[in-house]
Amino acid sequence: MRQLDSVAWTGRWKRRPAAEKLCLCLGVMTVSLAVAGPGGQVLIFALMALLTVGLAGVPFWTWLRALLLPAGFLVLGVLTLFVSVGWAEGEAGGGVTLALVPPTDREAAVFVGLRSAACVSALVFLALTTPLPALMTLLRRLGVPRDVADVALLMFRFLWLLFHCLETGRRSQTARLGYASRSRWLRSSALLAAGLLPRALDRGTRMDAGLRARGYDGSLATLSSEERPSLLRLGGIAGGVLVLGGVTAWIG
Amino acid sequence: MHIMEGFLPVGHAVAWTAVSAPVVAYGSWRLIRTVRQNPELKLLLAASGAYVFILSALKIPSVTGSCSHPTGTGLAASLFGPWIAAVLGTIVLLFQALLLAHGGLTTLGANVFSMAIVGPIVAWSLFRGLRGAGVAGAVAIFFAAALGDLATYVVTSFQLAAAFPDPVSGFWGASAKFLSVFALTQIPLAISEGLLTAIVYNLLQRY
Amino acid sequence: MDRLDPAAGPAREASGARPSPDASGAGLSPGGGACVLEARGLGFAYPEAGEVLRGVDLSLHAGERLVLAGANGSGKTTLLLLLAGLLTPREGTLLCDGQPRGRSRRAVRAWHSRVGLVFQDPDDQLFAPTVFEDVSFGPLNQGCDAALTRQRVDRALAALGIADLAERPPHSLSFGQKKRVSIAGVLAMEPGVLLLDEPTAGLDPEACEDLLETLAALAASGTAVVVATHTMDEAWAWADRIALFGGQRIVACGPPEAIFRDLSLLETLHLREPLLFGVARRLADAGLLPPGHPLPRTQAALFSLLSQGT
Amino acid sequence: MDRLDPAAGPAREASGARPSPDASGAGLSPGGGACVLEARGLGFAYPEAGEVLRGVDLSLHAGERLVLAGANGSGKTTLLLLLAGLLTPREGTLLCDGQPRGRSRRAVRAWHSRVGLVFQDPDDQLFAPTVFEDVSFGPLNQGCDAALTRQRVDRALAALGIADLAERPPHSLSFGQKKRVSIAGVLAMEPGVLLLDEPTAGLDPEACEDLLETLAALAASGTAVVVATHTMDEAWAWADRIALFGGQRIVACGPPEAIFRDLSLLETLHLREPLLFGVARRLADAGLLPPGHPLPRTQAALFSLLSQGT
To answer: Residues annotated as region Disordered (chains C, D) (predicted)?
Structure first.
């Protein structure tokens, strides 16, 4: 989490308006879900990889690591689709039968895997080039109620404070052999989880006082320093996505 | 159990989003009303939401040895009720997608339905029901957390089965298939999470 | 000791300090700045912890450097919260620019604009995703427009030497950097009084020195700066005036030299004589420093005097 | 300087310190205690932050008081985490009682039992509902039975003078009390090496002194005590030996007097000469202290020498 986040904050494309990157990501996902065939999915995956690692300058290993977690689910999911379950009805000795699905269904399963990989590559592009709060600010501009967006932005801040607390807490427990056996593990985790809740609430109360000292009375307005998205570039991205749609429809 | 980005066909993605959206919208309305009345609750809600996210980073051991992530939304439901918990859960799922590449944007609706709506509601109503029936707090919380977890897992399996029915046995066959594939990891996890939550509950009583 | 609070009676007698007829009043300070903030007979009690402050009098002048010195738990933080208008005193009055503290939303807002408080833990004050956004929060609450806010943020960041951090998220900063950002966030509101709770806690010697220099520059530009600390060496090096805390009250208040000469009082309060002060005083008494100089406030000054004297 | 780490080459030359043929090795210390913990060529890098430690050599002897001195961010905390076996070094070896650090579960467990680490913020360490339960956490995890655990907890609480807090919930304690509880929690595991990260940070002067005395008593009973700090006065007052941190390495390691004589090195590392040391050295050089005495380590000792010398 820390690594993905720090790449997003320090990357070459950090300063590009979040609206443009979100537009690209959602556009590509739409093409992938609605238009593209197997070849198109491979093309999308390659393009997004090129964009993320090549143009946006995300380190290759970071990119690969970000793909690792979804990959596990994908493989398991696709393999499940390869198998068909049947019930043998009414016969003695009958029961559950397992069989490989017919070739067309296998192809369909592989296609789902390819499509998912293409969409994941678009998601990873967004995650690795855009700091999360920029997206929250964008959502607020797009009409998400101010209070909800405020809560989300504050959550982002608190989450690092608590993450630090969790990390050092777990370390200190490890140093005192809290994870030396399975039963101790459960007990130590519970101590940590229980201890974090009052700390989290305490953080909230203290932050409330800290913000009131600066005139907080319910609204968390700040001045964003992000560039406004340019209509020209947004148009360019939309055009690019349309072209991608056309090309993928053509190659199937 | 998160459904990955792009795994659901476009129709299903849209449909689950349409199912979840009204609940989250209603929860948002309640949340806004709450913080307008009481501005300092904004900070407390955010801190609790962050806590829910952080709990998912807490690895717990399950009997089979694999580690995974308790959801924590059940706890949020007990603090703020299931509606506001659904909003916090939605934000958590969005964060997980964008900070961990876990879950996704097109599958957000489906994941919100199973993890931020059904799971917490099952956990919350079980807890209230069991407590009302005179069951001890720790026992009630064990069943609430464990069954809330299992409910999430069952719903996810149904969602996948609806998208990919079995060529031979249809929806129910596919459900059985997905349920059994994920059972190995999810059932021990649900038990672990139930135990963990019960210990946490006991500790919190003493703080 | 040229200022002694009238309420400090018992402890003052116990410590052997001489009572002084000069009660801390309004009006002009010895340094000449106008009185910006004044507390009279302030008392406070927490529902759980009972009474923590009793009969506190304090006046603060523009451009002054005041140190609140006291052991942990002596009530320094509570006093800062009261002065900043975040707690309501149980008794006593608070005046800012001669006006008592009002209860209306508008009055509270005006108070927060005039008296800024920097918390000990910077994480209690940093909430926004980037430094720039965080520092812009205060000015926007004051009703500044975007252009003015931007200008104030830039000025505050420059004053603390952290203009290069503007686009960074708080969670990627070091402790010292966060500290500076939290100060900038208050400074951007351009308060007349800046209160800081243990500002140097957790900083290494160089960062401490830099920060105290920055704060001195702020005071020189007319802001009244109040620093709460338990580090006596810092108080000696930096303060124009020191208010000593003990037993829920301000036990003595005056120029550093007068305060630190009263060893028995310091001991009663579980405080120490500042090392530099103690050494310099004994050297001067032994005739090892050239006569006619005030006691040195920095290590370098002591060493240079020492080389002249011997 | 009787010990200089071989890896400190460039900085050592830059600072003008004399290289020494005596590499920090195993065996007996000058004080005679057996070598309990040893690091050779230790290196570490965080994935986000890059290299933080490089070629660190250090040996630690029973009953020794070692101070790791360095500015914030110089890598002190990382070294403590490595020594405590909580991070795995990227390069180099670690030996405890002459045995290299193993990777088996059993070996890790033995290491954690032998080397204890107290974190800077006690809130990172205190999670149980009562002090007693918190301190019993370590011994129970080591496999002690109830009777032995109780005995160890009582002993640890007594050693830190907090036996009366046993039944209190940690969150109701003052910062100084929490600090003592967090140390007791590690002490109850009876480690041979006790590592403490900035143990006096946030404590007021009296609490600081008390804690350093407690730690000295622990060392006297045979535990090797390592304190990381950026307060040079503390290092001078307390250490048997000082390891100076800078530029990701230990730049110099030796007895305090030798370390602090190298002013240019201290400056390079953004550190300060300890005040008491600086004053005493200058007075001794000027012939104002009686000859033949080691430089005084406390204010009281300086003053008494001064009165003898003049």
So the answer is: 1-28
